[in-house]
## 1
Amino acid sequence: MAPMVQRVALIGFGAVGRAFARLLLRKDAEIQQRHGLAIRVTGIITARRGAAWDPEGLDLAAALRAVEEGGGLSPLSRSPAPAETIAFIERCPADVVVEITVLDPRTGQPATDHVRAALESGRHVVTANKGPLAFAYRALRDLARSRGRAFLFESTVMDGAPLFSMVREGLPATRIQGFRAILNSTTNFILTRMEEGLSFEEAVRQAQAIGIAEADPSNDIDGWDAAVKTCVLANVWMEADLRPDQVQREGIRGIGPADLEAARRAGRRIKLVCSAERTEDGQVRARVAPEAVPLEDLLAHVRGTSSVITLRTDTLKQLTLIEHEPEPMQTAFGLLADLVNVARGHWG
């Protein structure tokens, strides 16, 4: 029996998009054999490398070469593709739109508009962008349901770790009461290096050198990225309707060697902790702030770029998931897992 063909359009082709392309090239035969599914990338649009589409499927190896050699995508296109993203989304020959553009943690745009346009045009949506969930989750979820389309986002928090599918598929009849987590790998790396003797500035430069911190690391060290992720989890898991500026937020800019040493002497480690709790009146309160975590807490032992989350539920009490030293390929896997689940119908 011929495999089912799933046509996919990529909105963005940065590090995660290219990692996804490599993963798909490597896993294509396995996915066809195990799932009866042939995933074909039929469109790609970028901010700087142009756009291409082909209803039969683009040559992903050629697309990777073109972008990594500094060229453009348009020579790969079967016919001229729109240069404007919304028009591309509305007209692309695709069943699923994958949104992987750069996050703006203060507005959630343009990703939110991209997701909305894809759903309104009848496409399933998979996204690694946190913005749409932090700023418009309820509206987009309801739009997807009204159109009978999937809206999946496994790669938005903790890369490709199966957070959302675990809760969606594995925790039926369960109410999440709260969570505590370390979700920003950059700040966790900086704090780890400072414990090892580096100054704050030296630790930031090292994070930039290995590519986990931007030239301007403010979104990480001031807690914005962590606040957006906290918002996503609270909105999806706890039926909150928060925005990032409603999350109580304090970054690590004020943490110095004396603070780390005082914590060490007290048998603790300072971590940037993300948390949310359901109050007695049913509201959800969320917070991101440095905490001196006792060593008996698992959060104290997650170091470097690793992440951890502990859920508190009304059925399994506490459940903890740890992700070790993530790379773009793990985020790419989250996208791939979502695409397989769209095809299997595991998204309701």
## 2
Amino acid sequence: MSRPFASVRARATLAATLVVAVALVAAGTAVLLSLRSNLLGEAGTQAERSAREVATGLAFAKPYDDLPLDVDDRPVQVVDEEGRLVAASEDLERISGTGVDAVKPQPAATARDGGDDDDDAADAADDDDDHGESLEPGEIGARTTVSDGSATIDGDTEDYRFAAVPVETEDRGRLTVYAGAPLSAEHGAVNTALTVMLIGFPVLLAVVAWVTWLVTRRALRPVEGIRREMAAITASEDLARRVPVPDTHDEVARLASTTNETLTALESSVERQRRFVADASHELRSPIASLRTQLEVAAAHPELLDLDGAVEDTVRLQRLAADLLLLARLDAGERPADARVDLAALAREAAEGRRGVRVRAEEDVTVAGSRGQLERVLANLLDNAQRHARSAVEVSVRRDEGPHGAGGGGQAAVVAVADDGEGVPAADRERIFERFVRLDAARSRDDGGAGLGLAIARDVALRHGGTLTVRDTPAGGALFELRLPGA
């Protein structure tokens, strides 16, 4: 079952919007909590200031009527140590949160004979005294108790933060002043901030989503151009085309450059393959045509049959087919076998029966690989050396502690094949390892071969983790050096 298509732009926009939404919710919550805490603290400070102002008057023995009980229409209660309300704001109609629900001062006798409400108030006052502090007459307590509640003043009901401040008087004993500060500012500010967030956050998220969509579209526009060009290359099979490289020097530009490098390598590979097929067809055509001609002549005139020539063309055709098959296997990535091969013994076997070939080999020079492929390398190198030597070819096999090509450092096995011919020009020392390349264009195909021997030798060397290079000998001939990692 196929999955629904989701573009990178859509996923990026959704992810960015979700991240910003989470951040906004967290930041908004922190702002609201901080704002509420600061406003509650400020309300508590205002309530404490009002309570201490009244307590100061009591400490100086002012009458209840001279106390600032009705400043800014804030609720104020004065309670004695028996829990009796002795003074209160004039327009106070209801109050909760202070522990004393009475709103009108009552005579002492009434307070003593009062019901359960006064008993509850006295209990609340006793609780406060239990947690109070020892004070001298005329001293105001340093400790302030804060609580939240509500009050109704002149018909208006609001929430308040109350501060309770104890004061010790000379003639009236210990009194407790309850003063409240309205929380309307706190509620208004928090509600306003919440409203702004509820309206602003969706708008901000919409802006973030829109900007992210535009930015990702602009950022991914080169990618879409690369995709279109790759689709066109696939449709046209024109590997000479290249994708556009944006002038941004970023990951997309590097992707386009890498894509073009891949296309270049692919074009080169395809071109080599086409050239290989064309050259192989050309090389196969000659022995096949020659063999056909000889057979047709023999069919018409049996007495003219050139049996030796037919056998020679057949052997040449067989060798060419074997070379092409080996190259095809190497191109397909065939891994060499992991057998131990004695290069000294292999060199002696390859030189056996060849005129003018001398072998100098150290003992126990072994490598890991395919004996058949390495045998083909030595045979090709000897065939090439004998073809260009004047009189002698020398093969040396030794161990070397130096680097061995792709394998890096460590012990290497070296096979050197030197001839006393004219050598290889410096400009052609890499070209001779290309397929179907023959430097002497005037020589015959029978003498020069198909130009595959050195190409096969280098490919096998590379497959075994080694190298195959050529340079001049001190006498001026060619020296081919095969360097492989030791077993």
## 3
Amino acid sequence: MGYEETVSAHYGRGNIEEQLLGMVKADGGTPDSFSPANLRGADQLHIGGAAATTRVAGRAGINAGSHVLDLGSGMGGVSRHVAHDFGATVHGIDLTPQFVAIARSLTERTGLSGQVTFSQGSILSLPFGEDSFDTALMVHVGMNIQDKDTAFAETARVLRPGSVFAVYDIMLMGGDVEHYPLPWAATADTSFVQPPLAYSDALAQAGFTVDYEAKPLAEGIEFLERVTTNGGPAGVDRDAMVNLLAAFRSGLLAPVEIYARLT
């Protein structure tokens, strides 16, 4: 099994859509027609959930006129949130076929198919022409990407000049990651966490200029403390979240936002 197939297999497990629709039904909703908010962020596999998506989208300048590319769109939670709350048109791409199928199904059920579409594919070889989008988001995806230079060069290719690329990833603050599983990898074989400087260097090489960087570590710790007690994003192993919480508390890893503009 190749590297990308291993990453895809890590995420394509379990009856995730069934779990999400069960949440809607348990809250008195109708599984065939509901608002993205009814999923309570369980379809957004990143630190901070829906609140973090709102922050990142706002800082990226997304609005009703934005044509957004969601890199590593997973179950489509970020894409639907950005379309519903900001009025943007969004296309998500993800490596995992199961996630793409779930994303399309949930998007149809939330009535957003006219604004949000998805395709299955690799960020390292995007199936889009040049100058196709004016904003790109990559939310908790880079930890699985070894070749960030190619990923960022591909992103630059499909963005229009002046576009914003917002990256929100778990990044390495120092030391070596020793304890697995983590939410994005069962072993070190598919975990490629890097420090913020490595991201900035790769972005610069691709033609981006970094405008702003933030590290919401306190929020990340609080979020993981809550979800390890009460349950978190669908399909994420609790032991993986416990290990990530320990890495946050020790200062080994941290959630980092980077906003860069294509020059």
